[in-house]
């Protein structure tokens, strides 16, 4: 269905860009196969209006013109839809090349590489790749979860979705109905921020805890989508980035490097254990559970209790 819609939008855009005079709905319906197969006039009108709005949202400038007979026509003038010349200096070209490298292992690798080739064909200067020549380090964003691509498309198209999700302290997954906003990568894990319809509130979901297929649902969003900054702050808060207090934990020597990198202080206890003071924010209990027997929470008591509850739930699973 997604491919059929994309093809229909492309055909409509080509018709509107390729004409020198406004085309009526009747003429457009006779030129695009999908519109010919729409059935009733009502179905065609709904489809055409949605497609026209989608193209405008994508940035195509579509004019509505009324002729002398009172008929309404549509066209997209080339001069109104022409991008200005691309002018990039060497530093900007290097930044784009580095950004394309980041997605080398993800499903977006083809799109990133293709976009880079088009920019170079349009005159973007070739930049020396310092990361490839002088360094063994390579920037990458790993994407292993099957849910990533359908959720990325759902975020882009503003489509509600349903999926089975297992919370860290739950033995079994449960179905969630979500209006997806955006995907964020934090500490090597991908998170989805969106509106949970069942709970009537914004929620953040870790993609690695989504099981089965992500299924799209018809209909529009019921809650307003916040700006990108607000969503990013929500992801960081729910993932434990925003700290409001500090916690004291015991950590086995030689383990838990991510915890050590955030530690405010570290003290050797002997017998193979260290004591760390780390920032304590929402979601820290779920993160500590991932280190299993290498971590023991000393205080605060509520964090220790939350970690114990999660460990008991995992043991029962």
- Bin the helical content: 25-40%
- In total, the number of strands is 12
Q: Given the structure, what is the number of helices?
A: 12
Shape: elongated
Percent of sequence in beta strands:
15-25%
Topology pattern, helix = H, strand = E:
HEHHHEEHHHHEEEEEHEHEEHEH
Structure classification: alpha+beta
Distance between the termini: 38 Å
Please mark out the parts with pLDDT under 50 across 5 or more consecutive residues, or reply none.
Answer: 130-137
Strand order in the sheet with the most strands: 7-6-5-4-8
**Radius of gyration, in angstroms, nearest whole number:** 26 Å
Tell me what you see in this structure.
The chain is an alpha+beta fold. The chain is built from twelve helices and twelve strands.
Record keyword descriptors for this entry.
alpha+beta; elongated; five-stranded antiparallel sheet; four-stranded antiparallel sheet; 317 residues
Short overview:
The chain is an alpha+beta fold.
């Amino acid at each position: 269905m997604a491919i059929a819609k994309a093809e229909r939008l492309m055909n409509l855009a080509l018709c509107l860009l390729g004409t020198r005079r406004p085309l009526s709905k009747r003429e457009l319906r006779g030129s695009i196969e999908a519109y010919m197969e729409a059935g009733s006039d009502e179905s065609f009108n709904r489809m055409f209006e949605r497609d026209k709005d989608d193209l405008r949202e994508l940035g195509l400038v579509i004019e509505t013109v009324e002729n002398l007979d009172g008929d309404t026509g549509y066209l997209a003038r080339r001069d109104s839809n022409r991008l200005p010349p691309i002018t990039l200096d060497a530093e900007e070209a290097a930044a784009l090349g580095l950004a394309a490298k980041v997605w080398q292992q993800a499903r977006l690798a083809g799109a990133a590489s293709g976009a880079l080739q088009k920019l170079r064909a349009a005159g973007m200067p070739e930049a020396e790749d310092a990361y490839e020549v002088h360094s063994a380090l390579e920037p990458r964003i790993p994407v292993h979860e099957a849910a990533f691509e359908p959720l990325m498309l759902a975020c882009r198209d503003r489509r509600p979705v349903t999926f089975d999700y297992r919370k860290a302290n739950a033995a079994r997954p449960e179905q969630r109905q979500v209006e997806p906003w955006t995907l964020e990568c934090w500490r090597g894990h991908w998170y989805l921020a969106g509106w949970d319809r069942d709970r009537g509130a914004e929620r953040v979901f870790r993609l690695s805890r989504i099981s089965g297929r992500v299924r799209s649902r018809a209909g529009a969003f019921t809650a307003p989508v916040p700006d990108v900054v607000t969503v990013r702050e929500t992801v960081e808060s729910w993932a434990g980035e925003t700290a409001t207090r500090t916690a004291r934990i015991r950590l086995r020597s030689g383990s838990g490097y991510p915890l050590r990198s955030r530690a405010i202080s570290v003290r050797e206890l002997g017998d193979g254990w260290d004591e760390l003071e780390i920032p304590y924010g929402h979601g820290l209990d779920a993160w500590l559970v991932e280190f299993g027997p290498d971590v023991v929470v000393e205080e605060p008591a509520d964090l220790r209790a939350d970690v114990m509850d999660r460990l008991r739930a995992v043991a029962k699973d």
